[in-house]
Amino acid sequence: MIDTFHTGMIAASLCIIIAFFSFLKETDDLHRLLLTDLASVMALFLIALVGTDLAEALILPGLVVTISKLMALAEIYLVKEGLQKNSPSRILDIEVLQSAPAILASILVIYGIILSGFSGGAVAGLGVIFYLVCKGHQERFELIETVSGYAWVAWIAAFFIILIFPSQWFLAVMIAGGAILIKVTAKLSLIGTMRGESDV
Amino acid sequence: MNAEFIIGFGLIILGTVATAWPSPKDYITRLINLELPAFGILLVMLSFDETIALLTFIAVTAISTFLFVRVIEKKEGIP
């Protein structure tokens, strides 16, 4: 009798072989960048097959590593091809992108604050990215960096509380959750400033 | 082995083949085909009750799509 895990393993190995052969045949660098995302999906599928809390704990850092790797590779690609100053002749003009961002961004930020912690930070950060992408931005990097620094200090302080006064663990967990929420939101909102301007 | 797992599993295999050999071989087709295995893995995560992983994966997929669109836009949109 073949169970779920073994079926999944066979499928995953099949997919990995397919992805590997398409990698071998590919010569264009941007196509390879797209296939990198496919490979990361395969890796996540393998981890998800474990199907316990361990899998969930392993998927979160896997996702973070994936997105930071993709961002770095995309920047390297742009620098290598000399496309960094290359702005498109016509920016996408969609009417929803003019009217919707305020409502959608506030919904996402509120939902992120309710979730709290890392995932909440990611969701709230998406809201901020969406707002910045649609509405444009002024140079407010100093403010974002200051907020991010204070959040970092609060996170460290929460760890000291949990080590020195273990009876106050609930307070420490709440501080750490709030701080990591603010920190991830601030970092992700920097991505929203990438489009349009040629300074990044 | 429930229905979500079987559907997600099929979507991952089909999506991998579709992404490995896209029919008109250009960037946008490959980017759109990449959504198929991503949706498949969402269903697999749903069948194993991995809620936080699922939510974070949705957020990360949105950001990576944004990244790819930005790179493709710069590559194709030569003034």
Automatic annotation (TrEMBL), chain A:
InterPro entries attached to this UniProt entry: EhaG-like
Transmembrane segments: 6-24, 100-133, 153-182
Keywords (A to Z) from UniProt: Membrane, Transmembrane, Transmembrane helix
Keyword Transmembrane (UniProt): yes
Name of the protein this chain belongs to: DUF2105 domain-containing protein
Organism listed in the record: Methanocalculus taiwanensis
Automatic annotation (TrEMBL), chain B:
Keyword Membrane (UniProt): yes
Superkingdom, natural source: Archaea
Transmembrane segments: 36-69
InterPro entries with a match to the protein in the record: Prd_NiFe_hyd_3_EhaE
Keywords assigned: Membrane, Transmembrane, Transmembrane helix
Protein name per the record: DUF2107 domain-containing protein
